[in-house]
Design goal:
The structure holds two protein chains of two kinds. Chain A is mostly beta strands. Helix content of chain A is about 0%, strand content about 45%. Chain A has no helices and nine strands. In chain A, a hairpin with a 4-residue loop joins strand 5 and strand 6. Chain A is globular. By secondary structure, chain B is an all-beta fold. Chain B is built from no helices and eleven strands. In chain B, the strands form two sheets. In chain B, strands 2, 4, 5, 6, 9, 10 and 11 form a seven-stranded mixed β-sheet that branches. Chain B has a four-stranded antiparallel β-sheet with strand order 1-3-8-7, with no helix packed on it. In chain B, strand 5 and strand 6 form a beta hairpin. Classes of the chains: A mainly beta, B mainly beta. At the A-B interface, strand 3, strand 4 and strand 8 of A face strand 5, strand 9 and strand 10 of B.
């Protein structure tokens, strides 16, 4: 499986944008970039995914580098509820599975 | 609301006493997954079903078994729990195989082994 590298933890102030980086230098052409997050004491939840182009949804934006070797999850205005572990995951188009890495623990400061 | 339900949320068992965790879904999804998540670690896939087709991960211990009697229900059986099996067990579903199909997770069952 292709690997991703994320910072162990990050801090941000409430109501400010947050940029969560992910490196995936060995990404293949058929790997989708997925982001999930896990709030305390809950199961993971889907955030966003993309293949080549930047993506926006109601939760976040995903910015994908032109060479696809890195991506950034953008939370436009962090709230305390966004404090969670954020997982950047590569999934091949034919892959049923999610293989979670260590993720980034995001702390939001009031 | 359509969802993934796990019961119970907390389960206590004794060392070596078989235990079954259950998962049900109202999403009518074809794929169901079981993950194990130990404290401060990422979820680790144990196995998954595509419909009735069972797919075991290579490093899942034989102590862990699963049953999927119908589309809605999936069970995780731990035949002889050890202290190292204490963890959160997460069930997830997906409508179809492959990426980018989203996985929907239940709230998990926290298993304690005494």
């Amino acid at each position: 499986d292709a690997k991703t590298t994320q910072p162990n933890s990050m801090e941000s102030n409430e109501e400010e944008p947050v940029h969560l980086p992910c490196n995936h230098s060995t990404i293949s052409g058929t790997d989708y970039i997925h982001w999930y997050r896990q709030l305390p004491s809950q199961g993971p939840e889907y955030v966003i995914h993309g293949l080549t182009s930047n993506v926006n949804n109601r939760m976040a934006s995903l910015a994908i580098a032109e060479d696809r070797k890195s991506s950034t999850l953008i939370l436009h205005r962090a709230t305390l509820r966004d404090a969670a572990v954020y997982y950047c995951i590569l999934r091949d188009v034919g892959d049923d599975k999610i293989i979670f890495g260590k993720g980034t623990r995001l702390h939001i400061l009031p | 609301d359509a969802m993934v339900i796990q019961n119970p949320r907390y389960q206590v068992t004794q060392f070596g006493k078989p235990v079954t965790l259950s998962c049900s879904q109202t999403l009518n999804h074809n794929v169901m997954y079981w993950y194990q998540q130990k404290s401060s670690q990422a979820p680790k896939l144990l196995f998954h079903y595509y419909d009735k087709d069972f797919n075991n991960e290579a490093d899942t211990p034989d102590n862990f078994q699963s049953r999927r009697p119908n589309t809605s229900f999936c069970f995780l059986d731990i035949r002889s729990p050890g202290l190292g099996d204490a963890a959160m067990y997460l069930c997830a579903t997906s409508a179809r195989r492959g990426s980018p199909n989203e996985q929907f997770f239940g709230p998990g069952t926290r298993l304690t082994v005494l």
